[in-house]
Design brief:
Helix content of chain B: over 70%
Oligomer: heterodimer
Structural class of chain B: mainly alpha
Radius of gyration of chain B: 22 Å
Number of strands of chain A: 3
Number of domains of chain A: 2
Radius of gyration of chain A: 21 Å
Strand order of the largest sheet of chain A: 1-2-3
Largest sheet of chain B: 2 strands, antiparallel
Distance between the termini of chain A: 13 Å
Helix content of chain A: over 70%
Order of helices and strands of chain B: HHEEHHHHHHHHHHHHHHHHHHHH
Largest interface: A-B, 30 and 29 residues
């Protein structure tokens, strides 16, 4: 595999970091500030996209930032899986920035400059995670992301924000310090390296029982993936402004969690080692439990964002389940779901925010008949939910299809049943919302003020991502190709 | 061979601040304005000397210097190798940064005693430099006393409970120094020499091993009191809390670290690694003390309502890091301990200086009074944030990397209790610092500013909190940047300097 030494990965990471002083300086002129954010987002996306052709051709980009520890430098590397994630994040940042403008101005939120600054920092960290070449770099960007999202989650600075912030820190920082850090140093001690290799680095150097413990430490330690029981931070984080919830919790933060798990499972431990130890069933079971429990909890939630949060928890475990199947289609399905779920879920969150800005409602019970007054929003919501449920003509169908085939390939028929049953549950907690919005008569008392369609800035992004979801069904590139390439590199052809 | 001034750099490192202290005392009669420039000039000269010495050690190896040309074992020898060269540079830098922050705040705090403050400051760092650079066991005691006595006086300069806490420190510190003196006395009786290298060559031939062990234990106990290792830490929290803020930011980063250096020096150079680790069997019990220190310090810090006192208990826990790392006895652990000496000096300076900056505007440092500080004192709080993240151990700040080596050493040695203590301490630090961040971020500014600022010394007393004066902010910001730089260059520091400092027998 050809390796190109280039500064482009570093530029992709730094594009949003370097814009922060400019954002802070343009505090007085909001339009200039928003322009800087959009410029940085476009730049980031273009740099990432520029690396795509070579990566699709089989090459890798590499760049060493700093040799901080002997044998464990801070290093970037762009391969198929990394660029898949980076493309998703950077493209959706552009859309979310547009949405943020409409949302934050529509609600006249305070401290907008601080918001945009930490948002930019979080995106830097996300792309940093995507492009990490070794576990130390991954851990560094993971921690930076945890800290940079804290001011975003606690943006409203009230008591609800404070207690959610504490939960956020407790689960995310607590698990990474208690579980990931010692596990990482242990592996470094025993193997002398932390670099991601296609068949892992642990084989033959660590005893089986210890390996099992380490795998579990990583799966639960990367609590951003919200594997139960370390999931409680995600519903709590819904106190954040909706654009924060949308990008970070449906796309960036949680996807960082599952991305890290995928990296560790495939590039630190390796599929062969996991198969030899029979860990596939264990990890699949853990993921399956999360899928089922979260879907059932989602049914009981009245707050729209909370329902979406529990839905996300379930979907993330789909990704982990897919990769843990260790079969070709399963892994492709899991990786592809990173992209498909992202586009679908962000549409749903955008709609939730639009409903809040346009109608002032947060609860599903208050959304009866809202479809008449906010038709575009609810249509986008419908398409988004189709994608998350996994029905054609939306992109989510492609990834779910691969997951289903993957369970058959791996002979895990219990998991097949879990997938199908949870899809039914997904439909059960999404479709009634749409049905009631369009086909039921609202009680007039529910809408105290005028309900208009959401402002344009809040309406265009969800329609855009909904349209993309449909486009991805017909043409799931480059994501499908990248996922297949990544899996080929791991499983060896 | 260097000639002229360069040849006498080892002596100048100690002599320049000493003479400058006397000069300040003399010049105080002529004009108050001279004290600060003299002090800064002396500190800068020492810093330049320390860096030059370190570079020379890296290029040419160990530097031996004899005071007055007298050959050992009769004369006092100064010896600079990789270990003390590195720590010397670190201590010089930390003391300089802190001094730079003193310009307006010291005048405000001490008024007529400002001259005394600067003189004592320089005498204190003279003592520290001497401890670091000397190759003579008794000379170490002399300089230990210089540093301690000036330390007591500096702490006693504070208002209110400072004198009582200082007195407590005097009692415990003197007891500790006496233990050390007893230990050196034993060594003199057994070997007839006071020069460290000389003693080391004579000790293996001593038949009565019990006396040697006794001397070792006495020295260690004395130093443990001085470095505030649990359970001999009782003097530290009050002494550092009630000291004036700028004294706190001088003694907290430096005193305990230099004492830990002294322990390392005595153990590795005088008694040698094999004796200390293989024959005495002390490493196990001392490691347990270190673990207890970490747990105790962290838990006590959680119980505190005041920022400064919380920080002092963090210092107690950090001592456990370094002592434990050293007594693990393996390369990673010892490297971590030495690296942590440098890192912790910087981190502690950062947080204590930030606390001093906050104290210059707000008299009450209870956590509940810190409301809205992120908005009113952004630079100070940013520096406190970086310092806090470093103490938590978030990359790329330096605290993460020394923790890496310490945990690595713990895993290699199979001492999972130590690893658990380190992880526990990181988690506690998360809670501690996020409590402070929450206070500064969430709570709005309290309405009654008046009684918080009645003695703030601000002319006119507008009651609105503003950022600390510029000459405090600049060193503070520089320290925060230093934390990140130290982090990025950790690998180079360890492989380039620290690994050369450890004896070859360390596995």
């Amino acid at each position: 595999m050809e390796t190109v030494i280039s500064i482009r990965p570093l530029i992709a990471v730094l594009a949003s970091l370097l814009v922060i002083p400019l954002l802070a300086a343009s505090k007085r002129s909001p339009n200039l500030r928003e322009a800087w954010t959009l410029a940085a987002a476009v730049l980031k996306f273009l740099v990432v996209a520029s690396m795509l052709p070579l990566v699709l051709g089989g090459a890798q980009f590499a760049y060493t930032i700093a040799p901080v520890l002997p044998g464990y430098p801070i290093q970037l590397r762009v391969d198929a899986l990394g660029i898949l994630f980076a493309l998703v994040s950077s493209s959706l940042w552009m859309v979310t920035s547009l949405y943020s403008i409409g949302y934050m101005r529509g609600l006249q939120e305070h401290a907008q400059t601080r918001y945009y600054c930490f948002f930019a920092l979080s995106l830097s960290a996300t792309v940093g995670v995507a492009f990490s070449a070794n576990l130390l770099t991954l851990y560094l960007f993971y921690e930076i992301l945890s800290l940079s999202t804290y001011p975003l989650v606690t943006h409203h600075q009230d008591s609800a924000a404070r207690s959610s912030g504490r939960k956020y820190l407790f689960f995310i920082l607590g698990t990474s310090i208690c579980m990931v850090l010692p596990a990482m140093i242990f592996i470094a001690n025993k193997t002398g390296t932390l670099e991601f290799a296609s068949q892992g680095i642990a084989a033959g150097r660590i005893e089986p029982q210890t390996t099992t413990i380490l795998v579990l430490l990583f799966i639960f330690g990367f609590a951003k993936a919200a594997i139960m029981p370390f999931h409680a931070w995600l519903p709590a984080a819904m106190v954040a402004p909706t654009p924060v919830s949308a990008l970070l919790h449906a796309v960036a933060v949680v996807k960082v969690g599952v991305f890290c798990i995928i990296r560790v499972l495939t590039n630190i431990f390796g599929t062969e080692l996991l198969t030899d130890l029979g860990m596939s069933t264990l990890i699949c079971t853990i993921a399956a439990c999360t899928v089922l429990v979260s879907s059932m909890i989602a049914l009981s939630q009245d707050g729209l964002k909370r329902r979406l949060a529990f839905s996300t928890i379930g979907q993330l475990s789909y990704i982990v389940l897919g990769v843990a199947l260790l079969s070709q289609s399963g892994m492709v399905g899991g990786m592809l779901h990173i992209a498909m779920h992202a586009f679908g879920k962000i549409t749903l969150f955008f709609c939730a925010g639009a409903i809040f800005v346009g109608a002032g409602v947060k609860n599903i019970s208050q959304m009866t008949g809202i479809g008449k007054r906010m038709p575009f929003t609810m249509t986008a919501f419908f398409i988004g939910s189709l994608s998350v449920i996994g029905l054609p003509p939306c992109g989510g169908f492609i990834s779910k299809w691969h997951l289903v085939i993957g369970t058959v390939e791996a002979g895990q028929f219990v998991m097949l049943a879990v997938l199908l049953f949870s899809s039914l549950l997904n439909a059960a907690y999404f479709l009634p919302i749409v049905y009631r919005a369009f086909f039921c008569r609202p009680e007039e008392s529910l809408f105290t003020g005028p309900v208009d369609e959401a402002p344009t800035w809040c309406l265009v992004p969800p329609l855009l991502t909904a349209a993309l979801s449909i486009v991805l069904f017909f043409y799931p590139q480059p994501f499908l190709q990248l996922a297949q390439q990544a899996v080929r590199g791991i499983l060896g052809g | 061979m260097p000639s002229g001034v360069e040849a006498h750099l080892p002596a100048l490192v100690v002599a320049v601040p000493l003479c400058a202290a006397l000069l300040i005392t003399a010049s105080w009669w002529f004009g108050r304005k001279l004290s600060f420039p003299i002090a800064v000039a002396a500190s800068l000269a020492s810093l330049a000397a320390a860096i030059t010495l370190l570079l020379r050690v890296l290029a040419h190896g160990v530097i031996e210097y004899r005071l007055g040309g007298w050959p050992p074992p009769f004369g006092i020898a100064y010896r600079i190798d990789h270990l003390n060269g590195l720590i010397l540079a670190a201590v010089a830098l930390v003391s300089f940064l802190n001094l730079a922050a003193c310009r307006t705040a010291a005048e405000q705090e001490f008024q007529e005693k400002t001259g005394a403050f600067y003189a004592l400051y320089l005498l204190f760092i003279t003592g520290l430099f001497g401890i670091l650079i000397t190759g003579d066991a008794f000379n170490l005691f002399v300089l230990l006393e210089i540093a301690s006595l000036t330390g007591y006086a500096l702490i006693g300069l504070g208002p209110g409970r400072a004198s009582l806490s200082g007195l407590n420190y005097v009692f415990m510190g003197t007891i500790g120094a006496s233990f050390y003196l007893l230990g050196v006395g034993c060594l003199y009786v057994i070997t007839g020499s006071l020069n460290m290298a000389d003693i080391a060559s004579i000790l293996p031939s001593i038949s009565s091993a019990n006396m040697v062990v006794l001397a070792f234990v006495l020295c260690l106990i004395g130093l443990f009191v001085k470095m505030a290792l649990f359970p001999l830490h009782g003097w530290l929290p009050n002494a550092y809390t009630y000291a004036p803020p700028l004294v706190g930011s001088l003694v907290a980063p430096l005193t305990t670290k230099v004492m830990i250096y002294a322990m390392i020096r005595i153990t590795l150079t005088v008694f040698t690694f094999d004796f200390a680790f293989k024959q005495t069997g002390l490493s196990g019990p001392i490691l347990w003390l270190a673990v207890l220190a970490i747990f105790f310090g962290s838990l006590m810090a959680l119980a505190q309502q005041r920022l400064k006192k919380m920080l002092t208990f963090i210092v107690v826990a950090e001592v456990g890091y370094m002592v434990g790392g050293f007594w693990l006895g393996n390369k990673a652990g010892m490297s971590g301990a030495v690296l942590h000496i440098v890192n912790d000096a910087a981190m502690t300076l950062c947080v204590f200086l930030a606390a001093a900056a906050i104290a210059s505007r707000i008299r009450d440092d209870r956590l509940s009074s810190l409301g809205g500080l992120f908005r009113s004192m952004p630079v100070s709080m940013a520096a406190l944030t970086v310092g806090g993240l470093s103490l938590i151990g978030v990359p790329p700040t330096c605290g993460f990397f020394s923790k890496w080596y310490l945990i690595s050493g713990g895993i290699s040695a199979g001492r999972y209790g130590f690893v658990a203590a380190l992880i526990f301490s990181s988690l506690v630090n998360v809670v501690l610092f996020f409590r402070v961040f929450e206070a500064g971020y969430f709570e709005p500014l309290p309405d009654d500013h008046a009684d918080r600022f009645e003695r703030s010394g601000q002319p006119g007393g507008t009651g609105i909190v503003t950022e600390a004066p510029l000459d405090m902010i600049v060193p503070l910001a520089a320290t925060a940047v230093l934390l990140i730089l130290l982090g990025i260059f950790s690998g180079k520091i360890v492989t380039g300097i620290i690994h050369h400092a450890l004896p070859a027998v360390v596995g």
